[in-house]
Amino acid sequence: MELLENLKWRYATKKFDFGKKVNDEDLEKLKEAIQLAVSSYGLQLYKVLIISEEKLKEKLRTVSWDQSQITDASHLFVFCNYSERNDKHVDDYIKAVSDIQQTPMEKLEGYQNLIKQSLGSKNDDEWQSWSQKQTYLAMSNLLTACAELKIDACPIEGFESEKYNEILGLGQKGLNACVIVPVGYRSNDDHTQFRKKVRKPMAELFEMV
């Protein structure tokens, strides 16, 4: 299974080669992999910013614990969850289902109301937790696709989310920076790549019931 070999190859890259850039063709493949990610109800309640502008990456590095991956990587993916509930997201999704699957809207009303009722029953803390988890599902597809294409990546939670929101103007869009992933190509000087991967033994990680 080639996927397993690719996953063994990948690691959380600590030092990128600044001179190597992800080409447009591969970038489109990464975007499509994210687009195809699973999400609760199929809503995809997130937006992904892809940043390549060097001055902007330098500004974001100052609020990312000065981690060099932010500026040295080819592109910085910023996964943003929607910070507030909005029925329009559900309505737009149901309309897309109707159009793409050629299903009359009236046949989807029950599902539409079910989604709204389920999301509406969450308190603010539950909503934030649920909404942020959606971005991690999408991020997982990005990391797997990167491994398939032999593109390096490093998921990062160590950054000031509120500062990202301010710098990128996310607040007025109802968005919140949740997790970031620099992508590019590992530097030969990144000694982390030579470390053996450490994972729990199968017998400890899994239990057949």
From TrEMBL:
Cofactor(s) the protein needs: FMN
Membrane-crossing segments per the record: none
CDD domains for the chain: NfsB-like
UniProt feature coiled coil, ranges: none
Record has Cytoplasm as a keyword: no
Keyword Nucleotide-binding: no
InterPro entries: NfsB-like, Nitroreductase, Nitroreductase-like
Keywords attached to this entry: Flavoprotein, FMN, NADP, Oxidoreductase
Location of the Nitroreductase domain: 7-185
MF (Gene Ontology): oxidoreductase activity
Family recorded in the similarity comment: Belongs to the nitroreductase family.
Protein name: NAD(P)H-dependent oxidoreductase
Organism encoding this protein: Flagellimonas nanhaiensis
